[in-house]
Write a structure and sequence with these properties.
- 4 copies of one chain form a homotetramer.
- An 8-stranded parallel sheet of chain A has the order 1-10-9-8-7-6-5-4. In chain A, strands 2-3 form a two-stranded antiparallel sheet.
- The radius of gyration of chain A is 18 Å and the shape is globular.
- Chain A has 12 helices and 10 strands.
- By secondary structure, chain A is an alpha/beta fold.
- In chain A, helix 10 runs antiparallel to helix 12.
- At the A-B interface, helix 3 and helix 4 of A face helix 3 and helix 4 of B.
């Protein structure tokens, strides 16, 4: 196996949480998926995370999740490590998907707490201890209390950091005080990777010690986040401020067209559709943006002047429904 | 098809949310399941609800959920209607399970909002409208915002009540002001059934117009809840107060041995195991009560003097691990 | 001192939380106040609670609070006990107001936890223990976590019930499971009074053991709540259901004209103003309902056919600004 | 009036939220207060904020609040601007205190939303518009939803920024995505000051455009925060990271000895008492740390090696009760 095929330790850089191009409730937009993967990889990212929150993982059927894992791993072909979200309310189903991902060539899995029952830290600790022992791949913890109703308390992280195949944490809590506390804990493990979720916090997180970011906007404009990451790692605060301002602008203009908890995904998919990259169909209970919102996104995209790479050929453009 | 085989319209009475007897993470305690079903039916209940929150539905593998549906429908054999929980984060998987349930002979499905993404009322309304049109069975809405992060707002209920195969709502919000408002709306549909979830609220809900209750304690002691329901429907407030006091006592003594959001289930399973009815294994991330807690539950059971029906024969008792 | 002047032990019945008629930010509507007190007392209530949440207590200057206490105690003149809200973020100010109330002839004080800092149960317990020892009057605890961010946990109530001059609890949590648990605790003290706050829960609370209610709607229509209380105490479930339906209707039609946490007060004051009883000025940050909302309230009042007592003479009607 | 006496526009740098030294519930520790003011000013701070959350403002009697304003303004004597917290549930009392502060020589007031009733953005907007028109001093908005239950939404800030004597916002929400959005809005007003509350976020806030910080730890160790502020403004990321690590260490070691929402204040007061600066009495419902916790704080102080300035003479040390 070539070195490029391995999971870096720690994993550093931008690892986009890929949206899942759909042409219907239970059908991948296969051509759009291919274009999207190449679009993202061309931006210089250090990994690809599929079936996360941005990827609508929990909304997809298991059949489709497996198909996606298969296709992406095959297409990426070891150019960067593929990380697969296996969060589930059923531990058995998480393990099933993890096994599938390992067979398909994924390099790691990403795991949030089970998200139906309100559990406590004791249950969370034991859960991760149990499942980690059975997982065929290294696992990143995924902290997203807005969706799971449960945060990995620092004291729980302190214990979980002792498990060898727990190799990092993606923090999407958007609570930077929490982040700084966990970062101190993460110093215990030189191979541990602490990644920040919300792209609006990428600048400060990397300036103050994060290993990278799982930035949703990197679906749209991977170079921007890769450059921001690099500017932050070299301490170029002027450049960081400039790129950070662009990130905030994207957030304000693209991610707030809908009024629900998947508005970021709806905005991203709409923008990708405007660019001819993939369909903007969304799994229930959400739906693609309407025409008025879409026109506004198109206007914003034009004004934002993003470094988007080569233009798409019209012939490959999907027909959003 | 015999009349007993139909779903009453409206459904009235006690419809216990059955716990799922497990002997391991992905294995039913089949003998315990048989005993439990008979124990519950012997109490005079008007239906059986499986794969709900109390049934640990979301924590079980899809394979096991299907096995449970199959076994229960076969055993119940039309004596009471079987209702099957199909709540899921993926609409496709909800439909898959509903189809399975219909084929197995279930009489209705029960559906909470998808529980991963924070959605709004507009999404919830469209979601139910979409899925209801495709369901092969009548559907009860399931309101449980503590677990799903989303309540069926009265205005949304007003709209959903217009869908013919939406036949009722189980309210587990524990918010009685909300309940009273929804009850007024439910008057619009004579065939609609409004059921109360938390058994601690069964007395007042039925006194003030609920059609029945989905009382977890009816796993343990179905007669108590059936009698309370009957006393309330005939306006016997003295008897209601007496039985209500017993219900509160069970709640305080049996359901608070653990300190997490599945403590009720842990207490119920432990008590059922103490009575020799079924195993108390719990799906991750939870676990059965420990010895000290179990001894306390045994003591409480003895003191509570519940009307439990005939004693179990020792030979049928499982060996809890 | 005449017996009528004493605080009954336990206090039973309807104790309206009086709105505070204002003609300006720091000026009482003195004539309206007089009319309102008589209107309420004519309805057969068992006490009068001023400077509570409905009374906009925390929004008023200390000077005005004292003036109100003075005027109300003088006017009521022992016909029913007057209870004075002394909740404050500063213990010293609570004590100051309690002393003032005692001198003016109030019979009890009502005290919520201090509501600025998020405190815990240990702090709450010590706080009540400290202040109770210094209060010149019996004290009712006031549970309103939506406003104070802190509930009196049952275990804390168990401890506080041991303090002689803590004589009851007004529960405005709207959580009936909590209520039932506290009610069991309250059985320890025969002189303890457990009162329900939200009027939408008055029926069930009294049916299941509450001593009475602090019903905001009794500002408008005291007889309705007094009758509901009486029907519930004598177990007349048919009459309870009928009156309860009326209460829910008032709640839905009068209390939801505004979209904020003081909508009930705004609706009550508007309705009282429509009836010519008092001004509907509200202390900042709230304001009286606008004309369109007011017309709707007038329409609802006409349709509701409330037992409102004798009509007001036009000459005494205030001019709402 | 000397230039040093003016409020800079915008205000920049560290503006410590001073703790209020108390020797009893309603008595200032006057000698401790004097020492504390000098200790803080010696650290190079750019202002002094009294009667904020850290200052236990809402827990103090009005009499004592006025005494504190008087004493501090007199002692500071224009060396830095004094800002006075006037947040209150009663607008009238806020105005009273603001007038007092203006007369005493304060340079600005700080105002959070009224914190008892759950209000909405419309009420908040009107409230600030009304009160700002009547305030005798420039006002800083104070965003602290954990205590007030209400945040200044960006859209509300956009409107409030148009009011001339609203001169800045102190954001204590700890939500950095929010902060970045508000920062963009603040660019509209060159004289507007955006200050960050939680000191754990001081580094990133200043690196990304905040004008300064209201850092509680600057009671204890003002130089540390002043230095961090300066390193961040000159883009010295290595030095920032070093000082930020120290700030996080203080937070973890000093602010978590108690388990309630005033733990930071308890830790700060304890540490100041250990250093002989002032008494550690706390207003109800809180209390000073106990001996075991105090010994731990002393140990941490020794290990942290903070740049604390000249040692206190034993003779000036208070006797903590």
């Amino acid at each position: 196996m070539a070195p490029a095929d391995q999971l870096p330790s720690p994993l550093r850089g931008i690892v986009p949480p890929m949206v899942t191009p759909l042409s219907d409730r239970d059908t991948l937009d296969a051509a759009g998926l291919e274009r999207l993967v190449e679009h993202i990889l061309a931006g210089g990212v250090q990994g690809l995370f599929i079936l996360g929150t941005t990827g609508e993982g929990p909304s997809l059927s298991y059949r489709l999740r497996c198909e996606l894992v298969e296709r992406v791993c095959e297409q990426v072909a070891g150019r960067v490590p593929v990380l697969v979200g296996i969060s589930d309310t059923s531990l058995v189903e998480s393990l099933n998907l993890a096994d599938y991902a390992a067979d398909a060539g994924a390099r790691a899995v990403v795991l949030a707490p089970p998200y139906y029952y309100p559990a406590g830290q004791a249950e969370l600790l034991h859960y991760i201890q149990h499942i980690a022992a059975e997982l065929p791949l290294p696992v990143f913890l995924y902290n997203l209390p807005s969706h799971t109703k449960l945060s990995f308390d620092p004291e729980t992280v302190r214990r979980l950091i002792e498990i060898p195949n727990v190799v990092g944490l993606k923090d999407s809590s958007a609570e930077m005080i929490y982040f700084h506390k966990v970062r101190r804990l993460a110093e215990e493990r030189a191979d541990w990777s602490l990644l920040i979720g919300p792209e609006e916090l990428l600048a400060e997180a990397v300036l103050l010690g994060a290993h990278g970011g799982v930035s949703g906007g990197a679906n749209l404009c991977p170079r921007l986040y890769v450059e921001l990451y690099r500017a932050a790692t070299r301490g170029d605060t002027a450049r960081v401020a400039e790129l950070h301002a662009k990130v905030i602008e994207i957030s304000q203009r693209i991610y707030h067209s809908a009024d629900h908890g998947a508005a970021v995904i709806a905005g991203l998919k709409c923008a990708l559709s405007c660019l001819g990259i993939c369909d903007d169909f969304m799994a229930e209970p959400f739906h693609r943006l309407r025409d008025a919102e879409r026109r506004l996104i198109q206007k914003h995209l034009a004004e934002l002047e993003l470094p988007l790479g080569a233009p798409r050929t019209a012939g490959r453009s999907p027909t959003p429904g």
